[in-house]
Specification:
32% helix
Length: 79
Amino acid sequence: MRHSAKLKETLKKLPEEIRRKFYKQASFLQFNLNHPSLHAQKYDEINNVWQARIDKHYRFYFSIENDTYTLLYVKKHND
């Protein structure tokens, strides 16, 4: 699992609670893309970007290449 520079910068700006939730969800992703709490889905087919849930208000985005997940960024979810 890799972390993009954009993700690292974004995480620094998020509240501690959201960072904690992010790392928990990322650990689920590492072992099971289909973990029920992730609600992972393809977000951008052309650029191979996926979306997964951190909580009701935040999502994280990632790509998959071979067996490597690259965590790209976190942003607020528009309900």
